């Protein structure tokens, strides 16, 4: 029951992450309200998982990874290489994903970041239309909406966690 509640909190985070990605793509802003909501959903989910498992390892690993990401990325914000919202969003992701999902999340983040940078740097690869013009505009401004790959990687990692939990529950006979 606690595992299902934890997965439900993670599922509630998916629309928030989609909103963050869209707003970052269109306005290059990530609001503190959305980051705080994601943090609360992540902490609630980790709390439920920790109680169900009887171990605080996942929560501790998530907290340590979040702190490490904030400390590592903060100098890039001071140098104006990334936005403050991107730094805060990235620091919240280990709480939302959990320590056990960080490896999958990291691989997905790398793939989505490379794809985003390629679209921004080489907009001629895109089909004609408003999206291509907007990508060219971002390239001229020198802006990369890092919230998009961060959010997409988190959505995919959460979807993978939900899928894996459902497959485990189905194979163990819990769903029967």
Short description:
The chain has about 180 residues and is mainly α.
Model description:
This protein is an all-alpha fold and 176 residues long. It has helices at 2-27, 32-53, 57-78, 84-97, 102-121, 130-141, 147-172. The two termini are 15 Å apart.
How are the elements arranged and paired?
Layout: H1 2-27, H2 32-53, H3 57-78, H4 84-97, H5 102-121, H6 130-141, H7 147-172
Mind describing the biggest β-sheet?
none
H/E series, N to C? HHHHHHH
Strand percentage lies at under 5%
Total of helices: 7
Shape: globular
Topology, number of strands: 0
Q: Structural class from helices and strands?
A: mainly alpha
Rg, nearest Å? 17 Å
Proportion of helical residues: over 70%
Low-pLDDT stretches: none
Mean pLDDT level = 87
What is the first-to-last residue Cα distance?
15 Å
Task: Please supply descriptive tags for the structure shown above.
176 residues; 0% strand; mainly alpha
């Amino acid at each position: 029951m606690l595992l299902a509640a934890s997965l439900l909190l993670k599922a509630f985070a998916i629309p928030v992450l989609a909103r963050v990605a869209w707003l970052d793509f269109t306005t290059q802003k990530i609001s503190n309200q959305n980051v705080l909501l994601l943090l609360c959903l992540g902490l609630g989910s980790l709390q439920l998982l920790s109680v169900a498992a009887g171990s605080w390892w996942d929560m501790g690993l998530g907290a340590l990874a979040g702190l490490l990401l904030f400390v590592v990325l903060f100098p890039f914000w001071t140098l104006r290489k990334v936005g403050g919202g991107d730094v805060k969003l990235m620091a919240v992701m280990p709480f939302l994903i959990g320590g056990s999902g960080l490896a999958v999340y990291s691989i997905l983040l790398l793939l989505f970041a490379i794809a985003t940078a390629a679209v921004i740097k080489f907009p001629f690869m895109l089909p004609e239309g408003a999206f291509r013009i907007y990508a060219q505009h971002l390239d001229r401004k020198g802006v990369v909406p890092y919230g998009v790959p961060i959010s997409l990687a988190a959505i995919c990692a959460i979807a993978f966690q939900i899928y894996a939990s459902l497959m485990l529950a189905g194979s163990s006979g819990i769903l029967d």
